[in-house]
Amino acid sequence: MSHASDLMTLALDVATRAYAPYSRYQVGCALLTSTGGLFSGCNVENASYGLTICAERNAIFHAVAEEGPEMRIASLAVVALEQEFPPCGACRQVISEFALPDTEIWFLKRGKLVSKTVAELLPSTFQL
Questions:
Q1: Closest alpha carbon to 27 in 53, 61, 62, 63
Q2: Active site residues
Q3: Which of 46, 53, 112, 121 has its CA 20 to 30 A from that of 90?
Q4: Which domains does the chain have, with CATH numbers?
Q5: Beta bridge partners of 112
Q6: Residue 1's pLDDT is what?
């Protein structure tokens, strides 16, 4: 599974399981790793809002837990039920930590599937 539409379908499915009683934004993410692993995650909110985790970070952390610190993202799709937006700034930074130069990040914009690279979404990543 490497097609954007397949990843979007999986992201939509996992978005239905999001825990979002505060924002009401149900977000799902699916990613394909460079070794062929497929992982998904949804946002999980908390009354102490700083403890909330976004779908993208949930999926990435799951992938790292399964594949280890060398995990790299080949492609990632994020979608919100009844909303459209790209990954937030915090997620963009985490994606950049595990992205390859040609990693595709897919999301909806005006009803159309859009692909961006990390460099396009976050031109000046924080690096140590």
A1: 53
A2: 56
A3: 112
A4: 4-121 (3.40.140.10)
A5: 109
A6: 46
Question: Could you tell me the two tokens for 49?
Answer: 């809002």
pLDDT of residue 128: 76
Listed in order, strand segments (DSSP E) in 2-126 are 27-33, 38-42, 73-80, 99-109, 112-116
Q: Predicted confidence band at 127 (pLDDT cuts at 50, 70, 90)?
A: confident
Helix, strand and coil in the chain, % to nearest 5: 35, 30, 35
Q: How far apart are CA 91 and CA 57, in angstroms?
A: 6
Residues facing 75 on adjacent strands = 32, 104
| Total-model pTM | 0.93
Query: How high is the pLDDT of residue 88?
Result: 94
Burial of 7 (0-12, 13-18, 19+ CB in 10 A): buried
The residue count of the chain comes to 128
Percent of the chain with pLDDT over 90: 86
> Which residues 6+ apart lie within 8 Å of 72 measured at CB?
33, 34, 98, 99, 100, 103
